Amino acid sequence: MSVLFRVVRSGMTRRRTQTLVITLATLLAVTASVLAGALLVASRAPFDHAFARQRGAQLTAQFDARRATTAQVAASARASGVTGSSGPFPTTTVTPAALGTLSVVGRADPGGAVDRLTVAQGRWARRTGEIVLAVDPEGPPVRLGRQLDFPGLPGGPTLTVVGTARSVSRTADAWVVPAQIAGLTRSGRADSYQMLYRFAHAATDAQVARDRAALAAAVPKGAFSGARSWLSVRLFATRETALYVPFLVAFGVLGLVMSALVVGNVVAGSVGTGLRRIGVLKAVGCTPGQVVRAYVAQALVPAAIGTGLGLAAGHLLAAPLLADTSAVYGSVGLGVSAGVDLAVVGGVLGVVAGTAWLSAWRAGRLRTVDALAVGRTPVTGRGRGAARLAARLPVPRPVGLGLARPFHRPARAASMVAAVVFGTAAVTFATGMAASLGEVITAKNHNAADVTVSAERPGEPGPVPPEATRVTAAEAAAVRAAIAARPGTRDQYGSVTAEARVAGVTGSVPVIAYAGDASWGGFVMVSGRWVRTAGEAVVASPFLTASGTEVGDTVTLTVNGSPVRIRIVGEVFDVGQQGLRVFTDLSTLRTADPDLHPTDHSVRLTRGTDVAGYVKHLNAVLKPLGVSATDTKSVNGSDGAVALDTLAATLTLILTAVAGLGVLGGVVLDTHERIRDLGIHKALGMTPRQTVTLVIASVVLPGLAGGALGVPLGLAVHGVVMPAMGDSAGLRLPDVVLDVYRAPELLLLTLSGTALAILGALLPAGWAARVRTATALRTE
Amino acid sequence: MTTPLIELRDVTRRYDAGPPALLDVTLTVAPGEAVAVLGPSGSGKSTLLNLIAGLDRPDEGTVTVDGVRVDGLGESGAARYRRAGVGMVFQFFNLLDDLTVADNVALPAQLAGTGRREAARRAAELLDSLGIAAQASAYPGRLSGGERQRVAVARALMNRPALLLADEPTGALDSASGADVARLLQELNADGQTLVLVTHDHDLARACTRRTVHLADGRITADVTTEAVR
């Protein structure tokens, strides 16, 4: 066993607390960094690989079959910038029984120059009567041989599912042979044609917009009915994992900075309080280089242990998130890439080694005689002014003595402040993020109504086609009248969902049409205003992105084959149906679908109404009408928020623990260093309780300062990370989601810095109270 | 017969597995008496002082000071006992470097809950009576050894203790300063202050006390009056 090894081992054994602090600090930094790095890579890399492998479509364009011939559409492949194309393929939209609306494309085979589909199950369609469904990782498994009925179409065709296929470009929900399309339309011919393109330049939204304009100009006017950019497809595809990246990066950076601080503080403290030991080591022949190596190793060994544990934790936490990504792209065993592991391990250990080396350098340079002479007790003139002032404060003497302590060792106090700053910042950010996610859930559920009335839908699970819930005008009026007649009713509005094709968006989009004022229904506006009259609509940011529109633009919907022009008057916060829903007034759709009437009713009650009693009595009236009322609020899609909250809470807990340990390490060093003073105090009659008070008081000012600085830092992190998370999900967040901090909370968060510091000081305070006076005095 | 201020009965103190630091020590000190404890290094002098001061507890036997069973006190009780009944003077002064002389002296009173003004008044009075009032605002590091020990004595007397314990009070001083401190202790005892002095220095013991207790290997080997030593 080498001498150096013995020195390192004994140093680590003597300083168990500091060793633990370094281990935990690096554990946190590595865990958060591995998670962030893995998800950063996983959120993009699988999509990009699959997109390259399939030669994915950078633009999926729709052409109105009434305004352009197949030859004209095919000629668009020669437009400026196009480097590859597939199509034209005839398309239509169908609604099979017991399934939602499907965008169906007629393709003879899954190959081609662009969008080379991967058959996941079964085989490709070879003849009419067969259909291939797109893989939906979030949907139920598809059973091959299943019969899909289309009762609403002429002849009531039935198709057999012969396979499933995966299109990374998401160009369709299902594929049939081209000859089948005619049999899936009322008119007997394709509604539109689909063309798939690749371009010389399509890396940015601006480049894609130019490509799109070139295509629109290459076909007869009005024939280009819409297109979907691969960038928006990628955004949707990667949003689940990308959502985690910004806050994990934030925690990773916080963890890394904190690790550097803690390690620096601990090693510097070890040098400061171990001067006599360093002197002895040098006196017995250790070279300056050996002393430096010994102190760097004392930091690197626990850091390496923390790094190993952090790698394991990061891999464990990343596994479920990466599994989701694997399912989307059909890749097997998608794990944390070795590059991420190497970068994180190298980065963290490099930071630790660098910080430790800087601190240990002082130990190496110390002259042996100085190290031996200085010993343990610091002799400095610092902090005397503070001590003098504290002696005159109208507080118990132990409190005054404690308050003056940080001024004796400003650098150590600053490191304690820094630890508290990062701990408080983490708590502030995590608290804000939880509040913001709560607001997101509230905002996205649009469930401000006290009572909802809807048709009783026993039986089949899964999406219900709109046709299945159609009601007559008389039925809707009867329900409305029954609600209006019930005492306690304050407001009500009806709603019904229709399907529409939208210029600029591939496939169909749901249109939620309201009868009555729905502005109080829990809709949170990001910009603009709610719908007031017929012809107005509000949409979410994904719709604006996908359709290339903005608030104030006019968009044409195709409902029931009829064009409906709507003006977008506001951007609402909505994540349902990938944020592609259109919210409008029922009267907007009157001409396109005169038989559309509200199927659901939302009711707001007057204050003080007994909700349960109201529902009970209303249900008695509604039962003959085949509808029922409930006061159960629908809460959807909070799983992601729970996962985010849990992950954030875990990382915050670790970060605050490390912050607390950072304080603890500082107080331990301070207590060791001033053990003689402690002995004197005790000899003069300081009781254990007074000793605890002194030690705790010594961290109050650093705690207050850390809290006061940490809260603004946490607010800043929240202000940057939350919008970044919104961007990752393709959403702009409303102010209500971002403005979540209230003054009393901020005050509490500021004080949490002091609480954190006090928690960190409790252990050494107890130790200081227990140390025997005679022992403490002997250390001189 | 006067009730003794200090009474040790059959006191034994052992550290780890080594020989006992004190073995079956029985000793009484009357109020107003000055006693010097003499002996070589490792004889048990400091252990005896620590037991009387309540800084340590015996493994066997009892320690009673001014009617208080010191060996039965907990940490808080011992602290309160020291605060009220014992003043301590150390070889290396044990002054707090970051407090002024006045603040050092006032500290025991403030720990006992005395108000800041009252403590400052009493500290000023003591510093004046010990001839170091001019140094009240100075820091200990700027004082001579003799001055520092005077400050330490002032601090020890701050709460008007029944007992003054001095552990090698002149050990770190030059001969002139040592003589000065010895005179001070003599004067205090002459005014009725009970004094227990631990020292190697026979001259100091003779100068300050009328009784000497000799320790060797943890046992009292002699307990004689100063006149007998002379």
UniProtKB/TrEMBL annotation, chain A:
<feature type="transmembrane region" description="Helical">
    <location>
        <begin position="746"/>
        <end position="769"/>
    </location>
</feature>
<feature type="domain" description="ABC3 transporter permease C-terminal">
    <location>
        <begin position="250"/>
        <end position="365"/>
    </location>
</feature>
<keyword id="KW-1003">Cell membrane</keyword>
<feature type="transmembrane region" description="Helical">
    <location>
        <begin position="299"/>
        <end position="322"/>
    </location>
</feature>
<dbReference type="InterPro" id="IPR050250">
    <property type="entry name" value="Macrolide_Exporter_MacB"/>
</dbReference>
<feature type="transmembrane region" description="Helical">
    <location>
        <begin position="243"/>
        <end position="268"/>
    </location>
</feature>
<keyword id="KW-0472">Membrane</keyword>
<dbReference type="GO" id="GO:0005886">
    <property type="term" value="C:plasma membrane"/>
</dbReference>
<dbReference type="GO" id="GO:0022857">
    <property type="term" value="F:transmembrane transporter activity"/>
</dbReference>
<dbReference type="InterPro" id="IPR003838">
    <property type="entry name" value="ABC3_permease_C"/>
</dbReference>
<feature type="transmembrane region" description="Helical">
    <location>
        <begin position="692"/>
        <end position="715"/>
    </location>
</feature>
<feature type="transmembrane region" description="Helical">
    <location>
        <begin position="334"/>
        <end position="358"/>
    </location>
</feature>
<feature type="domain" description="ABC3 transporter permease C-terminal">
    <location>
        <begin position="651"/>
        <end position="764"/>
    </location>
</feature>
<protein>
    <recommendedName>
        <fullName>ABC3 transporter permease C-terminal domain-containing protein</fullName>
    </recommendedName>
</protein>
<feature type="transmembrane region" description="Helical">
    <location>
        <begin position="413"/>
        <end position="437"/>
    </location>
</feature>
<keyword id="KW-1133">Transmembrane helix</keyword>
<comment type="similarity">
    <text>Belongs to the ABC-4 integral membrane protein family.</text>
</comment>
<feature type="transmembrane region" description="Helical">
    <location>
        <begin position="647"/>
        <end position="671"/>
    </location>
</feature>
<keyword id="KW-0812">Transmembrane</keyword>
<dbReference type="Pfam" id="PF02687">
    <property type="entry name" value="FtsX"/>
</dbReference>
From TrEMBL, chain B:
<dbReference type="InterPro" id="IPR027417">
    <property type="entry name" value="P-loop_NTPase"/>
</dbReference>
<protein>
    <submittedName>
        <fullName>ABC transporter ATP-binding protein</fullName>
    </submittedName>
</protein>
<dbReference type="InterPro" id="IPR003439">
    <property type="entry name" value="ABC_transporter-like_ATP-bd"/>
</dbReference>
<dbReference type="InterPro" id="IPR017871">
    <property type="entry name" value="ABC_transporter-like_CS"/>
</dbReference>
<dbReference type="GO" id="GO:0005886">
    <property type="term" value="C:plasma membrane"/>
</dbReference>
<keyword id="KW-0547">Nucleotide-binding</keyword>
<dbReference type="GO" id="GO:0016887">
    <property type="term" value="F:ATP hydrolysis activity"/>
</dbReference>
<dbReference type="InterPro" id="IPR017911">
    <property type="entry name" value="MacB-like_ATP-bd"/>
</dbReference>
<keyword id="KW-0813">Transport</keyword>
<dbReference type="InterPro" id="IPR003593">
    <property type="entry name" value="AAA+_ATPase"/>
</dbReference>
<dbReference type="InterPro" id="IPR015854">
    <property type="entry name" value="ABC_transpr_LolD-like"/>
</dbReference>
<keyword id="KW-0067">ATP-binding</keyword>
<dbReference type="Pfam" id="PF00005">
    <property type="entry name" value="ABC_tran"/>
</dbReference>
<feature type="domain" description="ABC transporter">
    <location>
        <begin position="6"/>
        <end position="230"/>
    </location>
</feature>
<dbReference type="GO" id="GO:0098796">
    <property type="term" value="C:membrane protein complex"/>
</dbReference>
<dbReference type="GO" id="GO:0005524">
    <property type="term" value="F:ATP binding"/>
</dbReference>
<dbReference type="GO" id="GO:0022857">
    <property type="term" value="F:transmembrane transporter activity"/>
</dbReference>
